[in-house]
Amino acid sequence: MRKAMRAWFGAVLLGCLGPASAGALDRELAAIVNDAQRPLSSLSVLAVRDGKVAYQQQFGLRRLDTTGSAAAAPVTPQTMFRIASISKMMTSFGVMKLVEEGRLKLDTDVGEYLGFALRNPNYPAQAITLRHLLSHTSTLRDDAGYFWRAGTALREVLVPDGRMWARDGEPGQYFTYSNLNWAVIGTAMEHVTGERFDRLMQHLLLAPMGLRGGYNPAAFSQQEVADTATLYRRRTRESEIWDSKGAWIAQVDDFGVAAPQEPAGLDKYVIGTNATPFSPTGGMRMSASDMGRIMLMLINNGRHAGRQILKPASLALMFGEQWRFNGNNGNTLKGLYHSWGLGIQRFADVRGNMGGMPQDGRFTAICHLGEAYGLVATFAVDLKKKQGIVSLIGGFGSDPDTDPGLHSAHTRAEERILEAIYQRAILGRGD
């Protein structure tokens, strides 16, 4: 089945664009990846047009030979990347499956799903719900962290620590993007199902769609480990000092050097007390090909291969607007966020965010973005027009903050990649 899928993806690459257009896009993207001043270690992209995969291509290396072992390997259609915060969207699909099953409700006090009361001490009378968590309006903040080793219960760190709670508006009123929301969400999912988060997501999303990867590389097959990209920067993990002339330095998933390990302290793991060792917020490994299958599922009203993965009503809830910036009701992160659903960013047509990308502003979408350990990623889909883009950059060779976008909140490299794919693969413009 997977061999047939790979052959199909290869066929649509030329079948939808034609050799000339695909070749032009290949050259344009390759030039961005191989820019001598601002190189990228790897890139995997996919475009959907008219509800079908119109283009898919990969560039660079999923593993570099940084140890002299001649272990370099190219990016392929099967290459999986740690997709950072796009993982939140995947986790949210799992939440909606549990809502469909009646095991979770969006507007119930989330404390009922955690086994302890969760309240902002500044607004103790206001319940916090999954709707608040999924829309980043819970008032939780990342100031004191959002990851704890197995054996540490969330109730031990969330309840007494005032640094994790905002004072700028009660739950449901003020937007601030917070990873900690998904630590709570993943833990609630565990508590109501009695299943460890990484295994639960296999059952809820990956297995029903035949997708590879997941939130725990230590459970991957040997081939999946081999297919997982290492993320790189030309800087150390500990330092913010970039060296664009220096060597690529592995940041995470360096499985060519050391095999993946189970999260530390897993022998002390108590299901339903702390899901963060499996990172519901950013730990999913997935390929652009499989992200394309998820995109097509969304375009097809939740159906995949004749099976209803998510109900249309669930998707409508996710994609419906829960929060919109009105000038003083949230932190837009330098103009990136203007509208949010449930675990889904909505690209409003506002200069400075994805609404200005591409520059003509015609690509309005729902999506999620990801950035961590050198990876910068985009998953954006226009459900009405049945078109979308997946872009996974596996590492920057220079500080991306020194090369900002010209008309969006993206880096300039991202802008160039997304613009090229939009113009050639989605609009079908040739040479």
Characterise the protein shown here.
This protein is α+β, with helices and mostly antiparallel strands and 431 residues long. The protein contains 12 helices and 16 strands. It has helices at residues 2-17, 19-33, 86-100, 111-114, 130-134, 154-158, 180-193, 197-209, 222-226, 288-299, 312-319, 412-426, and strands at 42-49, 52-63, 73-74, 80-82, 231-233, 249-252, 285-287, 303-304, 307-308, 323-324, 339-340, 345-346, 366-372, 375-382, 387-393, 395-396. A 7-stranded antiparallel β-sheet has the order 3-2-1-15-14-13-12, sandwiched between helices. The longest helix is centred in the N-terminal third of the chain and has 16 residues, at 2-17.
Layout of helices and strands:
Elements: H1 2-17, H2 19-33, E1 42-49, E2 52-63, E3 73-74, E4 80-82, H3 86-100, H4 111-114, H5 130-134, H6 154-158, H7 180-193, H8 197-209, H9 222-226, E5 231-233, E6 249-252, E7 285-287, H10 288-299, E8 303-304, E9 307-308, H11 312-319, E10 323-324, E11 339-340, E12 345-346, E13 366-372, E14 375-382, E15 387-393, E16 395-396, H12 412-426
Parallel strand pairs: 5-16
Antiparallel strand pairs: 1-2, 1-15, 2-3, 4-7, 5-6, 8-9, 10-11, 12-13, 13-14, 14-15
Helix pairs in contact: 1-2, 2-12, 3-7, 3-8
